Amino acid sequence: MPARNHSASRLLLLTLLASGPSVLATPSPASPPAVVRGEMAPLPVKPVSGPRLSLQPVSAKPGDPVLVTVRGASGLPTGTLDGRPLRFFAWQDGYAALTSLPVEQSAGTVGVDVTAPGRGLPVALSGSLEVGAPGYRERELRVASKYVSPPKAVKARMEADRKAFAAAFAQPFRTPLFGQNFAWPRKDEVTAPFGDRRSFNGKLQSQHFGVDLDGDPGAPVLAANDGTVVMARDNYASGNTVLVHHGAGLYTAYFHLSRIGVKDGAKVKAGEELGLVGSTGRVTGPHLHWGVKADDRWVDGQTLLKLDFFGAQETPGVATSSPDLGNR
Protein backbone atom coordinates (compact mmCIF):
# COMPACT_ATOMS: atom_id res chain seq x y z
CA MET A 1 0.00 0.00 0.00
CA PRO A 2 1.47 3.37 -0.96
CA ALA A 3 2.29 5.78 1.88
CA ARG A 4 -0.36 8.49 2.69
CA ASN A 5 0.83 12.03 1.93
CA HIS A 6 -0.23 13.90 5.11
CA SER A 7 1.16 17.23 3.96
CA ALA A 8 -1.00 17.18 0.85
CA SER A 9 -4.11 16.32 2.86
CA ARG A 10 -3.57 19.23 5.23
CA LEU A 11 -3.05 21.60 2.32
CA LEU A 12 -6.33 20.48 0.69
CA LEU A 13 -8.28 20.98 3.95
CA LEU A 14 -6.88 24.47 4.52
CA THR A 15 -7.79 25.42 0.94
CA LEU A 16 -11.39 24.27 1.41
CA LEU A 17 -11.75 26.19 4.70
CA ALA A 18 -10.40 29.36 3.14
CA SER A 19 -13.00 29.06 0.37
CA GLY A 20 -15.89 29.42 2.84
CA PRO A 21 -18.64 27.17 4.22
CA SER A 22 -20.41 26.90 0.86
CA VAL A 23 -17.57 24.83 -0.51
CA LEU A 24 -17.93 22.29 2.31
CA ALA A 25 -21.73 22.14 2.10
CA THR A 26 -23.51 19.42 0.19
CA PRO A 27 -24.53 20.76 -3.22
CA SER A 28 -28.30 21.31 -3.67
CA PRO A 29 -30.11 21.76 -6.94
CA ALA A 30 -32.62 24.19 -5.28
CA SER A 31 -32.13 27.93 -5.67
CA PRO A 32 -30.95 29.80 -2.57
CA PRO A 33 -33.75 31.69 -0.69
CA ALA A 34 -34.23 35.34 -1.58
CA VAL A 35 -33.12 37.93 0.96
CA VAL A 36 -35.61 40.80 1.64
CA ARG A 37 -34.10 43.92 3.06
CA GLY A 38 -36.10 46.45 5.11
CA GLU A 39 -38.03 46.78 8.40
CA MET A 40 -39.53 43.74 10.08
CA ALA A 41 -43.32 43.57 10.23
CA PRO A 42 -44.65 44.02 13.81
CA LEU A 43 -45.71 40.87 15.57
CA PRO A 44 -49.27 40.74 16.99
CA VAL A 45 -49.16 40.98 20.77
CA LYS A 46 -52.09 40.12 22.99
CA PRO A 47 -52.97 42.75 25.62
CA VAL A 48 -51.80 42.10 29.15
CA SER A 49 -54.56 40.32 31.09
CA GLY A 50 -53.55 41.72 34.48
CA PRO A 51 -55.47 44.24 36.61
CA ARG A 52 -56.60 47.48 34.95
CA LEU A 53 -57.78 50.73 36.54
CA SER A 54 -60.50 53.13 35.36
CA LEU A 55 -61.90 56.37 36.79
CA GLN A 56 -65.13 58.29 36.28
CA PRO A 57 -65.39 61.16 35.66
CA VAL A 58 -62.11 61.61 33.77
CA SER A 59 -62.01 65.25 34.89
CA ALA A 60 -63.92 66.34 37.99
CA LYS A 61 -64.72 69.34 40.15
CA PRO A 62 -64.95 69.75 43.93
CA GLY A 63 -68.06 68.05 45.29
CA ASP A 64 -68.19 65.33 42.61
CA PRO A 65 -68.75 61.60 43.19
CA VAL A 66 -65.93 59.45 41.75
CA LEU A 67 -66.27 55.84 40.58
CA VAL A 68 -63.07 53.74 40.69
CA THR A 69 -63.19 50.43 38.80
CA VAL A 70 -60.62 47.61 38.71
CA ARG A 71 -60.84 44.75 36.23
CA GLY A 72 -58.62 41.71 35.89
CA ALA A 73 -57.85 41.34 39.62
CA SER A 74 -58.03 37.93 41.27
CA GLY A 75 -59.35 39.32 44.55
CA LEU A 76 -60.63 42.40 46.36
CA PRO A 77 -58.33 45.42 45.78
CA THR A 78 -57.36 48.05 48.34
CA GLY A 79 -56.39 51.65 47.70
CA THR A 80 -56.85 55.38 48.22
CA LEU A 81 -57.96 58.47 46.30
CA ASP A 82 -56.03 61.53 47.48
CA GLY A 83 -55.19 59.55 50.63
CA ARG A 84 -58.83 58.68 51.42
CA PRO A 85 -59.37 54.88 51.73
CA LEU A 86 -61.49 53.27 49.02
CA ARG A 87 -64.15 50.68 49.93
CA PHE A 88 -64.18 48.15 47.09
CA PHE A 89 -66.96 45.68 46.36
CA ALA A 90 -67.41 42.96 43.74
CA TRP A 91 -69.08 44.52 40.72
CA GLN A 92 -69.85 43.27 37.21
CA ASP A 93 -66.72 41.46 35.97
CA GLY A 94 -64.40 43.16 38.46
CA TYR A 95 -64.45 45.43 41.50
CA ALA A 96 -65.54 49.01 42.13
CA ALA A 97 -65.47 51.71 44.79
CA LEU A 98 -67.56 54.87 44.98
CA THR A 99 -65.96 57.82 46.71
CA SER A 100 -66.21 61.63 46.60
CA LEU A 101 -64.30 64.88 46.45
CA PRO A 102 -64.96 67.47 49.17
CA VAL A 103 -66.38 70.85 48.15
CA GLU A 104 -63.19 72.39 49.59
CA GLN A 105 -60.98 70.41 47.19
CA SER A 106 -58.37 72.60 45.45
CA ALA A 107 -58.05 72.55 41.68
CA GLY A 108 -55.20 70.38 40.41
CA THR A 109 -54.30 66.70 40.16
CA VAL A 110 -55.55 64.07 42.60
CA GLY A 111 -53.69 60.76 42.83
CA VAL A 112 -55.30 57.32 42.87
CA ASP A 113 -53.28 54.36 44.19
CA VAL A 114 -54.63 50.81 44.21
CA THR A 115 -53.12 47.43 45.05
CA ALA A 116 -54.85 44.57 43.24
CA PRO A 117 -54.16 40.84 43.60
CA GLY A 118 -52.88 39.40 40.33
CA ARG A 119 -52.13 35.86 39.20
CA GLY A 120 -48.94 35.88 41.20
CA LEU A 121 -47.62 38.93 42.99
CA PRO A 122 -49.98 41.83 43.71
CA VAL A 123 -50.02 44.64 41.19
CA ALA A 124 -49.75 48.33 42.02
CA LEU A 125 -52.06 50.50 39.91
CA SER A 126 -51.79 54.28 39.84
CA GLY A 127 -53.72 56.98 38.04
CA SER A 128 -54.63 60.64 38.36
CA LEU A 129 -57.81 62.69 38.32
CA GLU A 130 -57.82 66.27 37.08
CA VAL A 131 -59.91 68.56 39.31
CA GLY A 132 -61.05 71.91 37.95
CA ALA A 133 -62.37 75.04 39.65
CA PRO A 134 -65.92 74.64 41.01
CA GLY A 135 -67.39 77.97 39.87
CA TYR A 136 -69.95 78.08 42.71
CA ARG A 137 -72.40 81.00 42.64
CA GLU A 138 -73.13 83.46 45.44
CA ARG A 139 -76.85 83.93 46.19
CA GLU A 140 -78.97 85.77 48.72
CA LEU A 141 -82.38 84.35 49.65
CA ARG A 142 -85.30 85.64 51.70
CA VAL A 143 -87.06 83.18 54.02
CA ALA A 144 -89.22 83.36 57.14
CA SER A 145 -87.21 84.78 60.05
CA LYS A 146 -87.87 81.68 62.19
CA TYR A 147 -85.62 79.67 59.84
CA VAL A 148 -82.73 82.15 60.15
CA SER A 149 -82.94 82.47 63.94
CA PRO A 150 -84.87 79.42 65.16
CA PRO A 151 -86.74 79.98 68.44
CA LYS A 152 -85.61 78.01 71.49
CA ALA A 153 -88.80 75.98 71.33
CA VAL A 154 -87.68 74.21 68.14
CA LYS A 155 -84.05 73.57 69.09
CA ALA A 156 -84.95 70.24 70.66
CA ARG A 157 -86.75 69.31 67.44
CA MET A 158 -83.73 70.28 65.36
CA GLU A 159 -81.48 68.11 67.53
CA ALA A 160 -83.89 65.20 67.07
CA ASP A 161 -83.74 65.79 63.31
CA ARG A 162 -79.92 65.70 63.39
CA LYS A 163 -79.93 62.37 65.22
CA ALA A 164 -82.50 60.92 62.81
CA PHE A 165 -80.34 61.87 59.82
CA ALA A 166 -77.23 60.41 61.46
CA ALA A 167 -79.03 57.11 62.10
CA ALA A 168 -80.38 56.97 58.54
CA PHE A 169 -76.90 57.53 57.07
CA ALA A 170 -75.33 54.86 59.28
CA GLN A 171 -76.44 51.87 57.21
CA PRO A 172 -73.97 48.96 57.03
CA PHE A 173 -71.80 49.02 53.93
CA ARG A 174 -73.04 46.60 51.28
CA THR A 175 -72.94 45.96 47.54
CA PRO A 176 -75.22 48.11 45.33
CA LEU A 177 -78.96 47.48 45.36
CA PHE A 178 -79.50 48.87 41.86
CA GLY A 179 -79.28 47.28 38.41
CA GLN A 180 -79.20 50.36 36.19
CA ASN A 181 -77.70 53.85 36.09
CA PHE A 182 -79.29 56.77 37.95
CA ALA A 183 -82.02 59.00 36.50
CA TRP A 184 -83.62 62.34 37.40
CA PRO A 185 -86.26 62.10 40.15
CA ARG A 186 -88.32 64.48 38.02
CA LYS A 187 -87.62 66.25 34.74
CA ASP A 188 -87.90 69.99 35.17
CA GLU A 189 -85.81 73.15 35.22
CA VAL A 190 -82.82 73.26 37.57
CA THR A 191 -83.44 76.40 39.62
CA ALA A 192 -80.36 76.06 41.84
CA PRO A 193 -77.36 73.82 41.13
CA PHE A 194 -75.18 72.05 43.67
CA GLY A 195 -72.68 74.17 45.58
CA ASP A 196 -74.35 77.61 45.60
CA ARG A 197 -73.08 79.72 48.50
CA ARG A 198 -76.08 81.29 50.17
CA SER A 199 -76.96 83.95 52.68
CA PHE A 200 -80.46 83.93 54.17
CA ASN A 201 -81.90 87.38 54.87
CA GLY A 202 -78.33 88.70 54.81
CA LYS A 203 -77.33 86.76 57.93
CA LEU A 204 -76.90 83.01 57.82
CA GLN A 205 -74.18 81.70 55.50
CA SER A 206 -74.48 78.18 54.10
CA GLN A 207 -73.79 76.09 51.01
CA HIS A 208 -76.37 74.32 48.89
CA PHE A 209 -75.68 70.59 49.03
CA GLY A 210 -78.24 69.51 46.45
CA VAL A 211 -79.90 70.28 43.12
CA ASP A 212 -83.20 72.20 43.19
CA LEU A 213 -85.77 71.18 40.57
CA ASP A 214 -88.78 73.32 39.79
CA GLY A 215 -92.24 71.81 40.13
CA ASP A 216 -95.86 72.56 40.82
CA PRO A 217 -97.24 71.49 44.20
CA GLY A 218 -98.49 67.93 43.97
CA ALA A 219 -96.26 66.90 41.03
CA PRO A 220 -94.84 63.37 41.49
CA VAL A 221 -91.30 62.78 42.80
CA LEU A 222 -89.71 59.50 41.67
CA ALA A 223 -86.92 57.32 43.04
CA ALA A 224 -83.67 57.95 41.14
CA ASN A 225 -82.80 54.24 41.41
CA ASP A 226 -83.53 51.02 43.29
CA GLY A 227 -82.95 51.06 47.03
CA THR A 228 -84.37 50.96 50.55
CA VAL A 229 -86.15 53.86 52.29
CA VAL A 230 -84.20 54.73 55.45
CA MET A 231 -86.09 57.92 56.33
CA ALA A 232 -89.69 59.04 55.75
CA ARG A 233 -90.02 61.94 58.19
CA ASP A 234 -91.07 65.57 58.70
CA ASN A 235 -87.98 67.64 59.61
CA TYR A 236 -87.77 71.28 60.63
CA ALA A 237 -85.50 72.56 57.82
CA SER A 238 -85.95 69.94 55.08
CA GLY A 239 -89.68 69.50 55.64
CA ASN A 240 -91.24 66.22 54.57
CA THR A 241 -88.17 64.15 53.72
CA VAL A 242 -87.41 60.79 52.11
CA LEU A 243 -83.95 59.21 52.14
CA VAL A 244 -83.16 56.15 50.00
CA HIS A 245 -80.13 53.93 50.59
CA HIS A 246 -78.75 52.44 47.33
CA GLY A 247 -75.83 50.43 48.77
CA ALA A 248 -72.10 51.11 48.28
CA GLY A 249 -72.31 54.06 50.71
CA LEU A 250 -74.68 55.92 48.35
CA TYR A 251 -77.91 57.73 49.33
CA THR A 252 -80.39 60.03 47.60
CA ALA A 253 -82.48 62.63 49.46
CA TYR A 254 -85.83 64.22 48.57
CA PHE A 255 -86.73 67.36 50.57
CA HIS A 256 -89.72 69.72 51.01
CA LEU A 257 -92.37 67.21 49.86
CA SER A 258 -96.02 68.13 50.31
CA ARG A 259 -96.78 64.45 50.93
CA ILE A 260 -94.67 61.36 51.68
CA GLY A 261 -95.86 58.26 49.85
CA VAL A 262 -93.51 55.59 51.31
CA LYS A 263 -92.59 54.22 54.73
CA ASP A 264 -89.32 53.47 56.49
CA GLY A 265 -87.89 50.14 55.35
CA ALA A 266 -89.79 50.05 52.06
CA LYS A 267 -87.89 48.64 49.08
CA VAL A 268 -88.37 50.87 46.05
CA LYS A 269 -87.59 50.55 42.37
CA ALA A 270 -86.22 53.18 40.00
CA GLY A 271 -89.07 55.45 38.88
CA GLU A 272 -91.36 54.51 41.77
CA GLU A 273 -93.26 57.43 43.32
CA LEU A 274 -91.87 58.54 46.68
CA GLY A 275 -94.08 61.58 47.29
CA LEU A 276 -95.23 64.90 45.86
CA VAL A 277 -93.52 68.26 45.27
CA GLY A 278 -94.19 70.76 48.04
CA SER A 279 -92.85 73.70 50.04
CA THR A 280 -92.47 72.29 53.56
CA GLY A 281 -89.50 73.30 55.73
CA ARG A 282 -87.09 76.14 55.00
CA VAL A 283 -87.97 77.11 51.41
CA THR A 284 -88.75 80.14 49.26
CA GLY A 285 -91.40 78.31 47.22
CA PRO A 286 -92.48 74.88 45.98
CA HIS A 287 -89.68 72.75 44.49
CA LEU A 288 -87.79 69.52 44.97
CA HIS A 289 -84.40 69.65 46.65
CA TRP A 290 -82.63 66.49 45.43
CA GLY A 291 -79.51 65.54 47.36
CA VAL A 292 -76.92 62.80 46.86
CA LYS A 293 -74.53 61.53 49.53
CA ALA A 294 -71.57 59.32 48.55
CA ASP A 295 -68.91 58.04 50.95
CA ASP A 296 -70.17 60.33 53.76
CA ARG A 297 -70.11 63.52 51.66
CA TRP A 298 -72.85 65.47 49.90
CA VAL A 299 -72.03 65.46 46.18
CA ASP A 300 -73.39 66.86 42.91
CA GLY A 301 -76.32 64.77 41.70
CA GLN A 302 -75.83 65.97 38.13
CA THR A 303 -72.42 64.27 38.07
CA LEU A 304 -73.92 61.07 39.53
CA LEU A 305 -76.28 60.97 36.55
CA LYS A 306 -73.26 60.94 34.20
CA LEU A 307 -71.56 57.96 35.85
CA ASP A 308 -71.84 54.70 33.92
CA PHE A 309 -71.78 51.90 36.50
CA PHE A 310 -72.07 49.24 33.81
CA GLY A 311 -69.60 50.19 31.09
CA ALA A 312 -66.64 52.14 32.47
CA GLN A 313 -63.80 52.66 30.02
CA GLU A 314 -60.17 52.16 30.96
CA THR A 315 -58.31 55.28 32.08
CA PRO A 316 -54.62 55.59 31.21
CA GLY A 317 -52.49 54.84 34.24
CA VAL A 318 -49.52 52.83 35.39
CA ALA A 319 -49.60 49.16 36.35
CA THR A 320 -46.47 47.51 37.75
CA SER A 321 -45.69 44.23 39.46
CA SER A 322 -44.62 44.89 43.03
CA PRO A 323 -42.48 42.08 44.48
CA ASP A 324 -41.81 44.17 47.57
CA LEU A 325 -45.48 43.89 48.52
CA GLY A 326 -45.25 40.13 48.81
CA ASN A 327 -47.77 37.52 47.74
CA ARG A 328 -51.34 37.87 48.97
General form: globular
Main beta sheet, described?
8 strands, antiparallel
Strand content: 35-45%
Q: Residue ranges: pLDDT <50 for 5 or more in a row?
A: 1-47, 316-328
- Tell me, rounded to a whole number, the average pLDDT: 82
Roughly how much helix do the residues carry, as a percent range? 10-25%
In angstroms, what separates the terminal alpha carbons? 80 Å
How many E strands? 24
Estimated structural class: mainly beta
The sequence of SSEs as H and E is HHEEEEEEEEEEHHEEEEEEEEEEEEEHE
**Number of distinct helices:** 5
Radius of gyration: 33 Å
How would you portray this structure in words?
- This protein is mainly beta and 328 residues long.
- It contains five helices and 24 strands.
- The chain has helices spanning 6-18, 21-24, 145-148, 152-168, 301-304, and strands spanning 52-56, 59-60, 65-71, 78-81, 84-85, 89-91, 94-100, 108-116, 123-131, 138-141, 190-192, 197-200, 204-207, 211-214, 220-222, 227-235, 239-247, 250-257, 259-260, 267-268, 273-276, 287-294, 297-299, 318-321.
- The radius of gyration is 33 Å and the shape is globular.
- 34% of the residues are buried.
Can you tag this structure with a few keywords?
13% helix; 5 helices; 24 strands; eight-stranded antiparallel β-sheet; single chain; mainly beta; six-stranded mixed β-sheet; disordered N terminus
Gist of the model:
By secondary structure, the protein is mainly beta. It is 13% helix and 36% strand. The model is unreliable at 1-47 and 316-328 (pLDDT under 50).
